[in-house]
Write a structure and sequence with these properties.
The chain has 409 residues and is mostly helical. The protein contains 24 helices and no strands. The longest helix is centred in the first third of the chain and has 19 residues.
Length: 409
Amino acid sequence: MISKKNQVFLLLYALSTSLLFAQPAYVFHDKGLEKLEAKNYAEAIKDFDLALQKDKNHAPSYCDKARAEAEIGKKEEALKNFEQAIKLKSDYIDAYYYRGLLYHKLKDDKAISDFSKTIQLDPKKTDAYLKRGMYYYQKKQEQEALKDFNKAIALKCTNIDVYYLRGKLNVQKNNTLEALSDFNEVIKKNPTHSESIVERGKIYLSQNKLELALKDFNTCVANRLNTEEIYAVRAECYLQMGKFDDALRDYNTLIDIFKTKDIKVYAMHADANFKKKDLPATIKDCNKMVSLNREYAPAYLLRAKVYVLQGKSKYVLALNDFKKVCELEPENTEAWTRRGNLLFETNKFAEAIEVLNKSISVLPDAAAYYTRSKCYYKTNNKKACCADLEKAAEMGNKEAKKDIGIVCL
C-alpha cells in the first residue's frame, strides 16, 4: 500500500510532467536556443526534439537543431533539418544563412546560392556579404570577393575580417595605399592583430620604409606570432638595413627551429654571409644549396664569384661553376660574361672570345664587348678589337673610349 506521502509525491510528479508537456513548442525551443548559445549542443538538441514533439511543423526548431548538429559534426542530419525548415518556411532567412555556413565549411559551392538567397531576403544582412565574400576569396574569385567585402563595409560591418581580407586582395592587385588603409583599420580596432601588422610591415618593406617595417615585424614576434613568414620577412628587412648578424640569426631560426627545406632561405643566408664578407661561410652555404638541389643555378653563380674573390688558386673552381650556370641557364648573361672575363684573366683568349660571343648574342653588353676587344687585341686581331671598342664606347664604356685613341689610330 502506497503511503500518503508517496501518493502526494506521485501526484506532484504527474502534475509537473503534464504541465511540462502542456507547454507550447516555442518554450522548449527557447530553452534549446539558450543551450545552443552556451555551446551545450547535445542538450540543446534534446530541447529542440521536445519542441518538435509538440509541433512537428515548428520551423525554428528544425533550423536550430540543424545548427547544433552542424557543430558536433552531424552534417547529413543538419542538412536534412535545414531542408525541412526551408520546406516549412520558404523565406526563412536564418535557415539559408546557417546552411550556407555549413556548406562553406564543407567547401561546397552551394554556400554561394544560400548566401545569395539570404541577401535576396535581407539585402542589409552584412554577415551574408562577408561570408559569401570569404567563400569567393577561398575560391580565388577575387573580383566577386572584393564586391562583397565593399558592400559589407558600406553596410557598416563590424567584423574586422572584412578589412583584413580586403587588404589582402588589394595587395594582390597592387593597390598599396588601399591595402595599407585596410590593415590600419584592422589595427585601429584590434592593436594586437598580428596578421594585419605583418602585412603592413611587408608593405613598408616594399616601400623601403625599413624602420617602420622592422617595428611591425618586431611587434609580431613580441605578440608571439612565431611563423616562418615573420622570421623570413624580418631577416630580409635586416639584410636590406645592412644588419647582417641579425639577418643571419633569423635565417638560422628558419633553418634550425623550423627545419625549412626552402632553398631560397639558404640562398638569403648565403647572401648575408657574402655581404658580411665571410667568404668561407658563403661557400659552406652554397655547398648546402647544391646538396639540396644540384640544378639550382644561383648557388653555383654565387660560389663562383666567391672563388674569384679568393684568388687565382680558385680560378679553376670558379670556371667550373660559371660553366655549370651556363649549362643550367643558357640565357644567364652574367655567367657568360664573368666566365669570359675569367678566361681572359687566365690567358685563354680563344675560349674567352667564344664564350663572350654567346654572352653578346643573348644580350649585347658594353662590358662583354670591351672584354672581347681585349681578347682580340691579345690575338692580334686589330680590326675586330677596334670594332668592339667602338661598340663598347657607344654603349658608354669609358675605358673603351680611352683605348680607341691608343689602339685604333
